[in-house]
Every structure is written in structure tokens, then in C-alpha cells.
Structure of Speckle targeted PIP5K1A-regulated poly(A) polymerase:
Amino acid sequence: MEVDIITTPKGFHCKLCNIDMPNKPSLDEHVKGRKHKTLTDVRATRQAQEERSVFVSGFQKDASQTQLTEYFQRFGDVENVIFDKDKGVYAIVQFSEIEGQQTALSQLVHEINGQRLRVKPREKKGFKLINKKKTDFQNLQEVLERLKPVLVQAETVNEQMHCVVERIQLTENKKNARALLVQLIQEVFTEFFPDSQIMAFGSSVNTFGIHSCDLDLFLDLENTKTFQARAKSSTEPVAEASSDDGRSEDSILSDIDLSTASPADLLELVAAILKKCVPGVHKVQVVASARLPVVKFHYHQLDLQGDISINNRLAVRNTRYLQLCSGLDARLRPLVYTIRYWARQKQLAGNVGGAGPLLNNYALTLLVIFFLQNSDPPVLPTVDQLKAMACEEEECVIEGWDCTFPSQPIAVPPSKNEQDLCVLLAAFFSFYATFDFAGSVISLREGRALPVTSFIGQTREETTQEEEEEEAMEEEQPRQPHNQALKLGPLNLLDPFELSHNVAGNLSERSQLNFQRECQEAEKYCRSLQYLRKSTKGKPWGLVRLFTPHGEGPKHKNQDGSADKDMSISIPFRLALLPEGLRAQLQQAGDDFRPLWFQRVCVAVVQVFQNVLKCGPGSLTEPTPAGDPGHADAAPGSCVSMDATSEELNTSNDSGVAGQDSPRSTAAAAVGTKRPLSSESSDASTSPQGKKARLGRGPKPGAPCWTWSQTHAVWAGRRKVRRELVKETVDSRPEGSSTALETQVTEHILEKQPRVKVPLVFRVQAKLVGATQSTKVLLQIHPPSEGKDHFRDFFHFLEVFLPKMVDTLMETTM
Ligand code: ATP
Ligand code: MG
């Protein structure tokens, strides 16, 4: 058997590849496999290289690769010279043949430019597959494994939550070690930048840190700038100018003018100082592309990742705000730790390397605080309320943003809310399970959800960066905060202070949907006995089951055990995709923007079925499914209009849509009803603020229902037809992005393909949901009683095609 293979109680283990195999056949397969072969070859090459190499030290710091190559070339052909990456203290000289190495070692004295070198055989390291560094997620997984038995033993969910904090929080020892590092960095920087100040912010100090969290530092150079300006204006020679405590200006300050230097230049300087002058610091790297550029580093002794930024006063202040909130109510920390942990397990948070499409810890913490501002009675005050409680000396404005709040929790009256952690955690999930993310902007400042349409005109599309900068230059004053751009997205979470910044602006639509879906799952679980009651048999309960990693939870099935067969298609509200004219109308509608948008979507839906897919009127003989509201009124081939008045019809059909049937009018008639919406929206439970939800104050939209028939398989072979047509028309846009092309594709199919055996007659019912969940239009598709299997293909096509086509139509015709 190969030397790398050992037998284990569970079968075999390959030491080289670090893989377990259960039996002999899988072992044989592995040994013959590519991975094992490649690693065996790599190991052989490395070993041969080691034998041909020498370890060299003692050369001058600035010695170059060429210098060493030239020197060692006299002993044999030199293949490569590799310096140690960080400090240039040693080098490996690799010869092409082993003779070169032997000759070099046989010479006793080596010298380059009078500098004595030390030359030794290269140390032979056992070849080991370096496992990629464990991710944070894997670390957390391990913590959970160790935490599980402790949590199972706890008596209550409250106790479990405290246990989570205790196990994963940053310990006092680690905090102290970090403080010492901050002190060391401060001392070094003071040497180069007199009067500068290094401040820690973020999770190391905001009371929500975990043991592996990074160290965020802010280098404040304001006082150094003053010092430099004073030195410059002084008649004394610059080198003799001194700071308050008698230190003199270092040569670095003679090289760079802090008042005019670009942030990129300053960061390069910071990086150079860190690299050269702070012992233990390595892997220093300037990341200039981040929203806030930083210098990243690693501190060896504490195995710690750190960031230094030079323009981040707002983050220092929001860190103080989080500290204050922790001090205001002791329930915040256990809630935040538990929710952060849950979010990690469900892969909702934890962007690799800081940026990414998921929630970051700061955003998640703000979501918890917002929820606590909205609990009944509130656990935490709004930021505006806090401002009112601050005294004059606590007033604070940074970059034009009001960041005033009391410095001590004592200034804030305690909450009257007495709910325990177990109840609050469940309430957090139900709060966000039914939250209208698409239609809202979350404001911690006001402690309420603002309608997203009220931010039209302040979004990125309207104001360009250059325009803002120009404005600021013209006025010769700091940029007016409210002129800045807000990036709207699937989750809009306003920073509590920088009110033009969407803290979750990076979040993808998929992440937002996953977040809400997981909140819904968690809410359901929190209603079960397994959450509330300790298992007497030592089984997982409470938080243990809540922390089941993503994808391992039970799949939800219908009562008959089948997967969900529901035929519905949703069209989400995406403000950014809407044309300017419609956005202006929505903005005017204020809180009532949803019915207006719904009406426009319905118009587009009709256009898709009628004009693009050429569906005809539904047959009168199509049976009505029992218990189906609204269907009884169904007029075949048209939309079911419930109580639509001619006035509503007219007002909603003002901007001519092509087609003599005027689908806009039929759809508008359907929507402009006085009858309440679907049961889903009329039953709408409580709003995020705990009040009874409403879709708007205007006329309540209806739940229009249309009956359509289709005689051809308009979904089959579309791609091929489109490709052929595209060749002729040079219109190469993707599926669903051109009305004319898609219409042509359908016409082609109708002309060239045979009819389906039995025409498909189906119904589509539109419902507006929102206010108590993300604003969207839900299209319920009722399949025909005949040709169901056939229809399923049509439905799968519609699932993808319809939302895209509706977006296109809304963009181009409204
Ligand atoms: P951790 O490092 O454990 O993930 P953190 O709170 O330190 O948590 P970082 O991403 O390191 O998170 O950010 C450091 C600090 O920078 C935050 O605590 C917050 O003060 C500020 N910050 C982070 N992200 C944002 C953001 N999107 N908008 C505004 N401030 C932010
Ligand atoms: Mg951090």
C-alpha cells in the first residue's frame, strides 16, 4: 500500500490529500485519480528543488535578485532566487543541478560587496497539502458544535441566548491585547505624524465583537495638519518646529503637504509606515477601491486582521451610537449576537472580505435596533428622540450630518417594555417576515418605515457625483447632505446619521428575498413547542434548531407530501426600473403609490397576454373552480371588471397604448374597483409599526381576473425562432427585452406551428400585496381542466417571461 495511506476505523485515509475513503474500491479510485497523482508529482518536484537549493542570509537589505544570481552563478547554473516576502532577510537560491548546491556549500566564505553571507543547506520540509485557511463560517460551525450540548442543557431560551454571548463575544483578554496593539501603532504614528490620533471603532469596541472580528482603526490627522500648517507659517526652519509636547516635525512631514495630499497618497504613506515600523505587522495592502479606502494589514502575534482608514469620522460616531444603545437596554446584546449567529448559519450575512451581496454586521445590528424601536412599547428610542435628550455640549455635526445623542445612557429614561428575550427574538422574525422591503426605506432616525417613493429625486440616477461636487465647489461650503445620492435597492436601510447612505445598498435581490424567507421560516419555528420548551430527552430545542445551517432544515411540503404545486408568479416592485414619468406620479401619490403601480402592472400584464403572446378570449364553457372568489363574474376573453366606473376607466387610460382593444382600459377597469382587494391584502395584519395596515387612502384596487385561451405552443422553440429573426433584424436583445421582437416570435409560431390539440383556457388573477410584506403583484394562474401537463410547460415559460416582459413594457410604454 502507498506510504500516504493509513487504515482508520472508518476505512482509509490519504495523508497527502487529506481525504477519507470508506472502502478499498474508493481507495483504488482515489489513488488512480487526478488529485492524488498531481499532488504526488508536485511533492516530487518540490523535494528535488529543495535538494538543489541553498538558504542565504546576511546580505544587505537592498540586495537584488540579479546581484545574488550573478554571485551564485559561479557555482552552477542558477534557476531561481526567491526572497522572503516581507522583510528581505533571507533568500533561497535554487540551482538547476545538485552539483551547483554542493559546490556552493563546499566554499567556506561568501561575500558580496564586502558583506559576509551565511549559506546553509535548505531545510527540508515535509510536503503537506496546505488546507485553505478556515473560513469564519467554518470557525462558527465548530463553535456551534461545541455550543450545542451547552445550549441543550440550558433551561430557557433566555438562558441559551446569554450562553451564546458568553461563548462567542470578544473576551476581556483579547480586548486588552487589542488595546495594546492600538497603543503600539499610536506610538509609531506619533513619530511620523505629530499629534495624530489612532481610534478603534467597529466591532472591537462597539460591544458586539466576536473573538475573530477584525480591528478597525481610524487615523485622525486633523491635529497633525494644524501642526504642519503652524510649522509652515513659522519663520523658524521647518525642521525646528515642534508640537505642543516638544516633538519636532519628522522628515515625512517635510515631504508631504497634508492639506493638499490625496487620500491615496496618504494611505500609501500609512502603509509604508505600518510595513516598515510596526513589528509583527505584515500583509500590508492599500485598498483604494472601497467606499472608504483603507490600508489592510495582518498582525501576526494575535492572528488579527486590521484596517486603517483616514476619513471615517462618521463610523467612529456610529460606533459610539451602538455602544450607547447597548448601554440603554441589556437585551440588545443577546439579541444581536443571536441574530448575527442565525444570519451566519443561514448564509444571510458574512460577506467574504467585507464586501459582497449579503448583509454586513453593521446593517444587521441596525435592523435589530429598528425592530426594537418599533416593539410595543418601544425598547429603544428613535435617533431623533435621543437627539432631543442630549445636552448642548453633546451636540455633534460631522460632514454636515447631525450626530447628536447623549454620551451616557443615564440621560435616557428606561424602556417600559418588559418582554423577555425569547419573546423579542420571535417578534424580530415576525416583524421582518411581513415587512414591505420593496416599498419602504427604514429610518432609525424617525423610527419608522418611510415610503420609498418619497426618495425619488434623491436617488443616484438623478444626481451625478460630478454635479454634486461642482455644486459644492461653487458654493465654497461643505456639501449639503441632502443633495447627496441615495442608492435604492431591494433593502433600503438609512444610516442613522449619514442620511443619504443606504447601509444595505450592496444587498442583492436574492439576499433580500432569502432574508425575508428565513425570517418567515424562523417565525413559524418560534411558534412551535420545540422552540419554547426544553426537550426532556436531550434533543435539540430552542436556539439549537434555529441555528440549523442553511439547506439542512426540513423542506416544506403540502399536506399530501408533494412539493408546492401552487401556480403563481410574482412581479416585484422595483422603483429603479420604472420610467421617470411614472416615478413622478408615484411620488405624488405618497403613501398611496401601491394601487397606482398595481394598475400599471395590470395594464402591462394584459398587453403581454393579448398583444405579445396573442392569447384570445377564454371559452364560456370553461368550468369555474369551486370557491374561487371573483371568478363567477368572469367575462370570457376579457378581464373581470368588478364595479369599475367609467370615470375610473377614463382616468386610468390616459396615455394611449397601441392596439385597438386598448388593454390599458380593460386592465384599468379591472383595477379601478371599489371592492376590497384580495383576502391577502384586506386581511393584512399589522404593519411594521404595529398599526393596522392599509394599502392606501385612495380608491381600493380590486383583484382583476382575466380568462385567456391559447391555441399554439407559443412557449416551445421560441429561442430558435428568436435567433433566426434576430439574424434578419439585427435586434439581438435578450428574451423579454423587446416587445416588437417577442411579438414577432409569437406571430411566427402561430403561422408556422400546428395548433395544440385542445386550446388551453386558463385564468389569471392579479393581487396586490404590500404594506405587510414586500410590495409585489401576485398573479395566480388557474390551469385549464384539460391539458394540465401541457399547460405546466406554458406556466414554466411564463414564470420567467412574464415578469421580464412586464418590466420592458413598463419601461417603454408608461
Ligand atoms: P465585524 O468586523 O465583526 O464584521 P463591524 O461592525 O466591525 O463588524 P465592519 O464591516 O468591520 O463591521 O465595519 C466597521 C464599522 O464601520 C462598523 O461598525 C460601522 O461603524 C462602520 N460601517 C460598516 N459598514 C458600514 C456601512 N455600510 N455604512 C456605514 N458605516 C459602516
Ligand atoms: Mg470590523
